[in-house]
Amino acid sequence: MEKLKYDIKSALFGVAVGDALGVPVEFKSRENILKNPVTDMIGYGTYNLPPGTFSDDSSMTFCLAEALTHDFDLNQIAQNFVKWYHENFWAARGEVFDIGIATREAINKIAQGKKPEFAGSTDASSNGNGSLMRILPLLFYIKDFPISERYEITKKVSSITHGHIRSVISCFYYLEFAKEILLGKNKFEIYQKLQTEIPEFLNSLSIDQHEISFFNRLLKDDISELAEHEISSSGYVLHSLEASIWCLLTTDNYKDATLKAVNLGEDTDTTSAITGGLAGLLYGFDTIPENWVEQLVRREDIQDLAERLAKKNHSS
């Protein structure tokens, strides 16, 4: 129970602290940030909000975690997203200040009665990082299930806002990586293991080879050998996934991984949140700089959520 509680706390704070680091410089170009790199938790900037303010990435992560403190229910997860967008549920400072287009459209459809698993667009142009950025808490529900079940549940939870296969595979890869971290594996071992396991599994589902080929930099190459200029950090799901794995593999602690993600520019909060989730799990909550955690808004609420999620997962 104690390890589970610690892992959940590491994951939730890992996402939120990474997110808050990136919020003040969101949308700034890499070249612009390079003139004055982010080296610490700062505030204001893009949204003019105090240091430690997390964005939609963390709010939606917490909405998912909140739903998972009860029995798994896709509708409850979706309704929590509606409650966040319309009633500021789990918003950092009482108001929503950032939301992706595809996410907003899906939430509005759900609010009008659309079934959650069909709310997210299945269009190839709707592959923003909106489901990847919030998916991590699902790990603690699916980690002991067989791979086919892990995939199916991940697909459903992604599809609430992002139903295209590319978003689904991105979430699946990310959670498989996180699952291996939980088992205590070395990050490079995990990277290599997934290069065999993920394609084998996806091929068993007869998924379009062309779609799988989008993941070649992760599944066939060694992404850690790429130079920074070869890594993109836009809001496209594949860019976010590649950037987060690259940041994780090319640093050796939480602080450097998340700062590297922020300093890539563009979708800074999300790249750093996605990186921070894995880095939090890999290195542990105690390695997240204390002054960053202390500045994080709603940290007692996040701690409480972690404890409730651990209790549910321990008992079920």
Q: What oligomeric assembly is this protein in?
A: single chain
**Level of helix content?**
55-70%
Beta strands, count: 0
Q: According to CATH, what is the class?
A: Mainly Alpha
CA gyration radius, whole angstroms: 18 Å
Coarse shape: globular
Q: State mean pLDDT (0 to 100 scale).
A: 97
- Low-confidence stretches are none
- In the CATH hierarchy, the third-tier topology is known as ADP-ribosylglycohydrolase fold
How would you classify the helix and strand content by structural class? Answer: mainly alpha
| Number of DSSP helical runs | 16
Largest β sheet strand count, sense and barrel closure: none
Element order, helices and strands?
A: HHHHHHHHHHHHHHHH
| Termini Cα gap | 12 Å
| Total separate domains | 1
Q: Which second-level CATH architecture applies?
A: Orthogonal Bundle
Strand content: under 5%
Per CATH, the superfamily is ADP-ribosylation/Crystallin J1
